[in-house]
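Hey team,

Filing this mostly as a record. A colleague (T.K.) asked me to run one chain through the structure pipeline before their review meeting, and I want the input and output archived in the tracker in case anyone asks later how it was produced. No errors, nothing strange. Just documentation.

Input sequence:
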Amino acid sequence: MNKIKNFKCECGGDVLKLDDGYECTMCKLKVYNKFMNYKLSDEQIQKLFYSDMIECNNIKLNDGYIINAQIYSSS
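Output structure:
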């Protein structure tokens, strides 16, 4: 686990980088770095730590369909 410099959660906790995503040291909010084969950008991940909604466009599913999705933080 590595602490991300200048990356804080809405609760004030530090955010750690894990193998499969990121986690807050205080509230334990965890954000995975992939959603349905879609790699989230650093900017999208930071938004989720501040309870924002993010939009992921053009996600290609295994069956070939392409969808758009909205992801919300559960904090």
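Quick notes for T.K.: The mean pLDDT is 87. The chain has one domain: 2-72.
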